[in-house]
Amino acid sequence: MLGLSVVLGAFGSHGLKGLLTPSMLDVYQTACQYLSIHSLGLLLILILNITTKFKISNASIYSLLFGIFIFSSTLIVISISELLNIPGLKKLGLITPIGGVLMVLGYLLASLNILKSIKS
Question: Three-state DSSP class for 48?
Fold first, then answer.
């Protein structure tokens, strides 16, 4: 996922510059930023789960994974919707907050799992 964020970011900076409006390029860059940052968060949680006594639930991990995917992918599709010339793609913006909620839920569950592990 981190590698994908690099590839998508480079494509946005070099391949989409001039093709997208500045506001849609910002949306695209936001998608890449969130993909990168939250992939690091997920990686940290996975490392903690494997290398420490903290047992982080699969619900937390999958919530983060699906949240990152939904949030970033919908923003990318929205940003390039004018290039694709497919009416209605911007309506995917209604789904984007679900990805954000799943990411928050994933971090919340991971935090609760860690606190529970500390108390045990």
Answer: helix
CA–CA dist 100, 34 (Å, integer): 10
Query: Where along the chain do its domains lie?
Result: 2-119
User: What distance in Å separates the CA atoms of residue 39 and residue 46, rounded to the nearest whole number?
Assistant: 10
Identity of residue 94: L
- CA-nearest of 3, 107, 120, 11 to 59 is 107
Contacts of 94 (CB under 8 A, 6+ apart): none
Q: Express each pLDDT in 24-49 by its tens digit.
A: 999 999 999 999 999 999 999 999 99
Containing H/E element for 77?
A: helix 58-79
Predicted structure pTM score: 0.91
